[in-house]
């Protein structure tokens, strides 16, 4: 199957256009202007970073769930439990972006005095790409680590067929000096389900290795994704990571895990009780920030300069892709495929507001 977007130059939306449109949409469905703008900034940053499956692509889905009563537009986000180096945040079923921003700010604040802080979250919702929150402590000369339970189960136990686990991502971000931050953001599956959905919207096929059908055969058509399941990274090791990350980000916090996970792709009326956790580590508790960042630079440069296999042009470091996307899209705007523009125009019309373009 060939996508029209493969050969057609795409219109690009600026950061300002995206933020203004997303803010307008959320205000229309009852979220306060300040909070709508905060969500819009985080969603737009996801697109600027190249996380297309977690940015404005998700907006129609978020609005369906808000209009279906599945998300609280006026949440009272609060700290339910607290100690010197930990916290448990109750998101009151608010938008995940707002809940995770609150939790990450709390972790940073606590790490400044305790050296490290672990903050768990329950009663939240989908919050976009993991790297958004792992990167926030870096701006405060800290290391960030984020875990979450995905918002739909697409992964069975290794060797099983019942989908009891999600993509359960991890992100780790730490600063460099001249080389910039190193940022790992990955699902415990070969591909995040958001990538499957974007492939479907654009009329593209999936690469072999993303999904498998219930007979154990490769599944390439994203329109048939419901007939199979995602594959874990590294075989049984990825399954193990998905399980453990889910227990830490979900079960530990009293959030949904396993059979309790609500498929937010198919259900617009049920609260998901999404779980996350964020860890902030103060580098200065171990050594000077500059010294650590210099050593990170050395490791990165050694990796880049290492001998390459035939046909390999360059050694990539976690975060290189998002850095390249950020440079391009900050300057030239975010590419908007026709199918996505159409979905956003339909959303604007349904809400009685001006479209994006």
Question: Which key phrases capture this entry?
Answer:
357 residues; alpha+beta; Hypothetical Oxidoreductase Yiak, Chain: A, domain 1; Ribosomal Protein S8, Chain: A, domain 1; 2 domains; three-stranded antiparallel sheet
Reported by name, the CATH topology of the largest domain is: Ribosomal Protein S8, Chain: A, domain 1
Query: Which CATH architecture of the largest domain would you pick?
Result: 2-Layer Sandwich
Order of helices and strands: EHHHEEHEHEEEEEHEEEHEHHEH
CATH class of the largest domain: Alpha Beta
Order of adjacent strands in the largest pleated sheet? 2-3-4-13-5-8-9
**Name given to the CATH homologous superfamily of the largest domain:** Malate/L-lactate/L-sulpholactate dehydrogenase, NADPH binding domain
Mean pLDDT over the full residue set: 95
What percentage of the residues does DSSP assign to strands (E)?
Answer: 15-25%
Largest sheet: 7 strands, mixed
Number of domains: 2
Low-pLDDT ranges? 1-5
Shape: globular
What is the total tally of β strands?
14
| Structural class by SSE content | alpha+beta
Structure, described:
By secondary structure, the chain is an alpha+beta fold. Helix content is 36%, strand content 18%. Strands 2-3-4-13-5-8-9 form a 7-stranded mixed beta sheet, with helices on both faces. It has a 3-stranded antiparallel beta sheet with strand order 11-10-12, with no helix packed on it. Helix 1 packs antiparallel against helix 2. The longest helix has 19 residues, at 96-114. It is globular, with a radius of gyration of 20 Å.
